[in-house]
Amino acid sequence: MKSKSTNDLNEELMQESNIDAYINDNRQFFSDQSISELLTELYEKKSISKAALARKAGISEVYLHQVFAGRRNPSRDRLLCICVGLGVTLEETQRLLTQASYAQLYPKIKRDAIISHGIVHHTELNEINDKLFAEGEKALF
User: Fold this and answer.
1) pLDDT in tens, 63-80
2) Which residue ranges does the chain devote to CATH 1.10.260.40?
3) What is the distance of C-alpha 131 from the center of its chain?
4) Which long-range contacts (CB under 8 A, 24 or more apart) does 79-82 make?
5) How far, in Å, are 45, 103, 124, 130 from residue 38 at the CA level?
6) What single string gives the DSSP state of each residue in 43-90?
């Protein structure tokens, strides 16, 4: 099975007059991975306990376990806190946001630029929040 880029899929979607044909032709390229599955996949690559992750993400262990179990869907800000706590890349963060149907971080928005910079440079969550506050932006938690 040959992989298709997002741009390829988007181009096909715009050219296809029949949505059913598009869905049928591209079914294997649709992502059906849940947020909890994707988070678990990323978590397993890291050497951090869930207790430590909860502390670094500024959330309770109970809430974190519920997210990983798929019983809770984190808000965009909570998901970003988990990304910062996990120390994932900006690309992985964008993938999680997309999979959760949230807007990706956008560098033309000051708040998103601060958060993106923090993720890229592995800045601690409290430092990101301090910078957000200093710039008059809403903190992540």
Assistant:
1) 999 999 999 999 999 999
2) 35-134
3) 21
4) 79/35, 80/105, 80/115, 80/140, 81/57, 81/125, 81/140, 81/141, 82/39, 82/53, 82/57
5) 11, 17, 22, 29
6) HTTS---HHHHHHHHTS-HHHHHHHHHTS----HHHHHHHHHHHT--H
Task: Give the CA angle between residues 47, 65, 117 to the nearest 5°.
Answer: 55
Amino acid in position 44 = E
CATH fold for the domain made of 35-134:
434 Repressor (Amino-terminal Domain) (1.10.260)
Q: Can you tell me the distance from the alpha carbon of 101 to that of 131, in angstroms, rounded to the nearest whole number?
A: 26
- Among residues 89, 85, 82, 76, the alpha carbon closest in space to that of 116 is found at 89
Asked if residues 53 and 86 have their Cβ atoms less than 8 Å apart, the reply is: yes
Q: What type of residue is 63?
A: Y
Summarize pLDDT for 95-120 with one digit per residue, the tens.
Answer: 999 999 999 999 999 999 999 999 99
Output the pTM of the full model: 0.86
Question: How far is it, in rounded angstroms, from Cα 33 to Cα 25?
Answer: 19
Closest of 79, 95, 84 to residue 131, by C-alpha: 84
